Amino acid sequence: YFRFDYVDIRVGFKGDFAIPVRRYCGSSTPAPITITGQQYVYIQFFTDISVSRSGFRLQYTISGSSECDQLNLGGEPGSTGLIKSPNYPNEYPKNIECKYRISSSSSSNMISLSFLAFNLEPNIQCRFDYLQVFVGRNTTSGSVGKYCGTTTPSSITRRTRYISMKFKTDGSVTRSGFNVRYSISGSRYAMAGTITSPSYSCKLSQQR
Ligand SMILES: [Ca+2]
């Protein structure tokens, strides 16, 4: 079955590389489906050379103020990926706020960001459109930089469990946005720690 006519719902990367999450055929109307945390959803309709029916009609809605968020990036040492502003390399939308979180498997790993492309509306204080980078799980504290304009930011490398980013745009002037590569390096095992014998104590004051 599914070899004749069907509809695929796909998420993630563009086009044929997107991951299929549902495949439909036949004549019973599928239940509503909710997809969360994805920037793209693709609907792909396949038909073969024989037997046609009336087809399909679907309605979609996009909800939430944060449909551009990507909070499950990262992984083990060796993991790498690209974070692009929405629509990149075309102009990003107005009035959006996107959050990104890169997680490494251990706080002894290193997370690196390198900026492959950068073009945001310029402002001396980055008051209009900006990308802000935080060392930490959230975009509330630990800011290490707020970037805008056309100067490509320097690479950022930190020994941390999390790096988060916030991309915010205002209601006018858009540019092509950014393309950032993240990578995680380190050992799969802890490279530092403290080991003590049972009942460990050492009083420096007893030294002469
Ligand atoms: Ca703007």
Automatic annotation (TrEMBL):
SMART domains registered for this protein in UniProt: CUB (SM00042)
Every CUB domain range: 1-63, 68-185
PROSITE patterns reported for this sequence: CUB (PS01180)
Domain of life of the native organism: Eukaryota
Keyword match Disulfide bond: yes
Keyword rRNA-binding annotated: no
Keyword vocabulary terms for this entry: Disulfide bond, Repeat
UniProt xrefs under Pfam families: CUB (PF00431)
Name of the protein in question: CUB domain-containing protein
Organism the protein comes from: Ciona savignyi (Pacific transparent sea squirt)
